[in-house]
Design goal:
The chain is α+β, with helices and mostly antiparallel strands and 101 residues long. The protein is built from 3 helices and 4 strands; from the N terminus they run βααβββα. A hairpin with a 2-residue loop joins strand 3 and strand 4.
């Protein structure tokens, strides 16, 4: 399947990587990127492997780490990476992000 990233996905992903580089180490940041890459490869092979989001019935929530979830949706032959979410952030903001795709 084709994989596309929304602007919000790029922004939120880069924000997490920047945070990891600033607060933690290059090794931690690279590990995060590797986990995301691996998860996307798995999703491309089996798009429905992660549960449908409780926030809307279109998006799916892929658990990346205990700190981060990646939201994506299946569009015909395309996987759209919507955004990355810090699991300790206010969950009410997820609804706002999903409304304005």
């Amino acid at each position: 399947m084709k994989i596309i990233w929304t602007r919000k996905a790029n922004t939120s992903f880069n924000g997490i990587v920047d945070y990891l580089l600033k607060i933690w180490t290059m090794e931690i940041a690279i590990n995060f990127v590797d986990i995301v890459d691996h998860t996307i490869i798995l999703i491309a092979k089996n798009p429905e492997m992660f549960k449908v989001s409780e926030y809307d019935k279109i998006s799916r929530a892929a658990f990346i780490t205990k700190h981060t979830t990646m939201f994506y949706r299946i569009l015909d032959d395309t996987i759209e990476i919507e955004f990355f979410w810090g699991n300790f952030d206010n969950p009410e903001k997820i609804n706002e992000l999903l409304k304005f795709k």
